[in-house]
Model the fold of this input.
Amino acid sequence: MQRMFVEDTPWRVSWMERILPCVLLIAERDPKRTIFTRFVPPKTAEDVAGTWRDYYLKWPMMTGDSLAPELIDLLPELAMLVPPAAIFNKRVYSPWFDGTLQRALVSSGVETLVISGGETDVCVLATVLGAIDLGHRVILVRDAVCSGADETHDASLDLLSSRFSVQLTVATAQEFLDAIH
Done:
């Protein structure tokens, strides 16, 4: 839920703005227990290895050298919740890669994660699968996730809800809020 995915960039996700009200509704419910993860590209393609280098050679305009720094920021409506909400930066799709997020969750006694944001078939998918691997119960908020590709968004939701039904619940924002009321 960052500016680089809403503003005029090659990574624009056209319906991220449409899910913002649901994401905001959930985050405002308890900002102290809200965590935002931010995708932070490297300064240059040469700063990363392997296929990530190839990735940024394809998208050089999205590296730190070319991208306006403010585009890394959360959308303004969500940024207003920080603090007390927290931000964890990540350089890859998964927020679990370096262990920082998991250590923070474990030290706070968090077992259930409510996941929203974008993109369903990229960062959200990596986040959900990592959370399941780490033993977290996951609630994926169907109307608070989005993608730039409808077909893979739908396929990801179908995959997650059918194959991981023991570890994951898919709910609407209202269903989630009603359940915790």
